[in-house]
Amino acid sequence: MKLGIMQPYFLPYIGYFQLIKTVDNYVIYDDVNFIKRGWINRNNILLDGKSYQFTLNLLEASQNKLINEIFIAEDQSKLLKTIYMTYKKAPYFSSVFPLLEKIFVYENNNLALFVGNSIIQIADYLRLDTQFIYSSDIKEKDSSLKAQDKILNICKIMGATEYFNAIGGIELYSKELFTEHNIKLNFLKTKPIEYKQFNNTFVPYLSILDVLMFNSLEQINKLMEQYEIL
């Protein structure tokens, strides 16, 4: 069984969903510490032809709290309006904006559940059949473990034969250690991706939202294949 484990990121870049597509089961890693100025509650969209960082407003966020101990502010209407004004003339706006509205009216303002739901909703839109589970729901795991030992523990509980991580984590894991436990360690590296954004010079590394607004599902499926496994 192929397993992926990542913190929940709000409207992350396409590589996050390439990882989801690659695995059979995906663990939303919600019971680890929140990282300020990270990607859990922010990303980049296209605004006036440039990359613009948006933020999901939080209540009393702290790196001393777990992700699932933090809550989002109730009123996110300003962010939704910004997205509306930015993408209202995009070719797939009429299909994607209702999905975004559905994400924003999610009834639970727990950060982990809110962002986790957004990931699951987008994966469903992309017709991915990956199964999701929150790490906080894996009761058998040893929470005293840290870093790769904690990941390895979850892999063993889940019965993984292969573990996939984003390329950014390549320095954090030991292939030899995973091999000792009969688990193959893989890293996914997204290849350069480009598509038409209005009539602007292409701006890379934006949220999956940008990909959805400018591409059909057929086009997105082709973009989703642009990666390599190391």
Question: What would you say this structure looks like, in words?
Answer:
The protein has one domain (2-229). The model has no long low-confidence stretch (mean pLDDT 95). The strands form three sheets. A six-stranded mixed β-sheet has the order 7-2-1-8-9-10, sandwiched between helices. The protein is of the alpha/beta class and 230 residues long. It starts with a strand and ends with a strand. The chain contains eight helices and ten strands. It has helices at residues 14-22, 77-87, 93-104, 111-125, 147-158, 175-180, 208-214, 217-223; strands spanning 2-6, 25-28, 42-47, 50-55, 58-59, 71-72, 131-134, 162-166, 184-190, 227-229.
Q: Main β-sheet, in a few words?
A: 6 strands, mixed
Record the strand order, biggest sheet: 7-2-1-8-9-10
The domain tally reads 1
Task: Give the overall form.
Answer: globular
Stretches where pLDDT is under 50 for at least 5 consecutive residues are none
